[in-house]
């Protein structure tokens, strides 16, 4: 993995992808949540983008931790504390890792595990984890098979997209949508959608380096 100068253009690409899909994400969270997910995420991303000069001076471990602490203190919502904890855990895991495919998989998996623990949730509960966990499984299996970069990145996008779509017909058992019972069915989870958009941007940006 290249140095952290990769981060500023990546953060900008993520911001513009979320802005381009703002109306749709907002509608998703209005349908089965309280509508603020996209605002929370954009607030967090803006705070992270302000750190650009600082992030490029840091190694991966410190940069990921800084991003996590910033998301925790600025984003708000359930998603803010969950994503914040994901990045702090990824930062801790990155301390002991070379960021090759094996290392990136270990770091990402540590992040997903921390969301599972903090949110007391797992796959199948109509949350961001329905995007994040399939991508973790895809990375783990591609690592075992020593897959090439193009395959890894394309599998990330497929897993994220299928995972996001899988939330549509689920009942929610965690988060605000869990109060709706059957009425939550038929709507994609907003956090699953933003996670998928972000992971697809990351895969596209990684394909350029
Ligand atoms: P809030 O629900 O507090 O308004 P947001 O709207 O920012 O926060 O985020 C909502 C998203 O957070 C949901 O769409 C879902 O993906 C995710 N989420 C909520 N609760 C959990 C949980 N316990 N575990 C994992 N993800 C969760
Ligand atoms: Mg909300």
What's the short story on this structure?
The protein is mainly alpha-helical. It has helices at residues 7-20, 22-32, 37-49, 52-55, 60-74, 77-94, 101-119, 129-144, 149-166, 190-207.
Overall mean confidence score, pLDDT: 96
pLDDT < 50 runs, ≥5 residues = none
Treating each run of at least 4 consecutive H or I residues as one helix, how many helices?
A: 10
Estimate nothing, just give the exact number of structural domains.
1
- Structural classification: mainly alpha
Report the sheet-strand fraction.
under 5%
Bound heterogens, unique: adenosine-5'-diphosphate, magnesium ion
Per CATH, the class reads: Mainly Alpha
Major sheet description:
none
Radius of gyration: 16 Å
- Measured distance between first and last alpha carbons: 9 Å
Could you tell me the number of beta strands? 0
What global shape is seen?
globular
CATH superfamily: DhaL domain
